[in-house]
Write a structure and sequence with these properties.
The radius of gyration is 22 Å and the shape is elongated. It has five helices and seven strands; from the N terminus they run βββββββααααα. Strands 6-5-4-3-7 form a five-stranded antiparallel β-sheet. The chain has a two-stranded antiparallel sheet with strand order 1-2. 23% of the residues are buried. The chain is of the alpha+beta class and 195 residues long. Helix 3 crosses helix 4 (132-153) and helix 4 packs across helix 5. It folds into two domains: 9-70, Thrombin, subunit H (Beta Barrel); 74-184, Methane Monooxygenase Hydroxylase, Chain G, domain 1. It has helices at 74-85, 95-106, 111-121, 132-153, 157-194, and strands at 9-10, 13-14, 18-21, 25-37, 40-49, 54-59, 69-70.
Length: 195
């Protein structure tokens, strides 16, 4: 029997293309295979996640349902980096509830949602320490975001992390300066009112 040539493209995805799988982040389609399960032929994307040393087989028919997508466009990466500049939005709910929400955002596959988690859990040197679970979620979100930013902007992962860190620290510094300026203005008003 002659060896059948494997398909190079299915459902808008090509072999050797980097994609985002929501629960695992950026991976590369290494092949599109056809395998037989219980007498039925099934076409599968074989996706390699090099950093995690993991290979995933996803039925081509389920790729859309599981949220597999192409890498974000440049404008989405810019929006995610802009999201990092925003003020952290920390709800006043129990940590377990917030942790679940953060985990859901990380696994959503949305780069902007992941950026929100990075922004909300970021701590500068002047801020109090994070708990172990906060740190774990922050690092998971940062890793997921950095991998996609690196893939889209053709950087290595360290370069992407440095870029994200730079945006976060500039934002934290400007927030701290604004807080200091507001405090100084309040002190000045208080001094004038007392005089």
């Amino acid at each position: 029997m002659a060896d059948k040539k494997k398909p190079q493209q299915r459902k808008g995805f090509r072999t050797n293309e980097q994609i985002v799988y929501p629960a695992h982040g950026v991976g590369r389609i290494v092949s599109i295979d056809e395998e037989e399960f219980a007498g039925a032929k099934l076409e599968l994307f074989v996706i390699n996640f090099e950093k995690d040393k993991m290979t995933l087989r996803v039925p081509t028919e389920k790729s859309e349902r599981v949220g597999m997508r192409k890498l974000s466009a440049d404008n989405v990466v810019k929006k995610a980096l802009t999201t990092l500049k925003g003020k952290a939005r920390v709800k006043r709910t129990m940590w377990s509830r917030r942790a679940q929400e953060y985990e859901a955002k990380i696994n959503s596959g949305s780069l902007v949602s992941i950026a929100e988690v990075v922004r909300d859990l970021y701590r500068s040197e002047s801020q109090p320490e994070q708990s172990y679970s906060e740190r774990q979620l922050y690092e998971a979100a940062l890793d997921r975001m950095a991998r996609e930013v690196a893939a889209v902007q053709k950087l290595d992962e360290e370069g992407a992390i440095a870029k994200i860190d730079e945006v976060l620290s500039k934002s934290a510094a400007s927030t701290a300066q604004a807080a200091e300026a507001a405090q100084a203005a309040q002190d000045s008003e208080d001094a004038q009112a007392a005089a």
